[in-house]
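User: I'm new to structure prediction. If I give you an amino acid sequence, what do you actually give back? Let's try with this one:
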Amino acid sequence: MEDEEWFEVSDEDWLDPRFIGKDLKLLADAQMPQPVIQEIGSAGIKVETLSQALRRHPDDNVLQLAQRTRRVLLTLDADFWDDRKHPLQTVHGGIIYVAEPPGQHDRILRAFGLVYGCFARSYPLDWWSHMKIKAVVGGFFIKMCTRQGNVARYRMRLQNGRLVAKEITVEA
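Assistant: Good question. You get back a string of structure tokens that encode the predicted 3D arrangement of the chain. For your 172 residues, that looks like this:
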């Protein structure tokens, strides 16, 4: 990877300082460990969990519930990152997929924390339509539909304390 392909990004790149959007709210699916959910909630982040009855429902129902309740789905389930199973164009409320092992609570929190601290906390809930994020320790990936209807993909990471991005592809 060439360093010149990376560019610095900040809140000002996507958010007008006068804009007041709705705060991020999350729906944690059945895959997300309870200690992780509790830690996220104790940090003041609005996170709901699935009721016991909904924990066994199919993925499509869980995603529809997140969308209906205007929450971004927080999951460890790789199926949500797969566009053949959950096409980006049908995701109306956003997905944060944490690609870390379920038993590794610290790694899950570190991966989510990077996404939240560098991006999600400032990115208004209103703008999450047609967006998926894949979080790993040390970075994250964004897939999103552009205003022109294309799919843009970015890799994000911290470099010298600053968030940098690299455009991976734009597909028509």
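You can read the tokens as a compact description of the fold. Here is one thing that stands out. Residues 110 and 138 are 8 Å apart (CA to CA).
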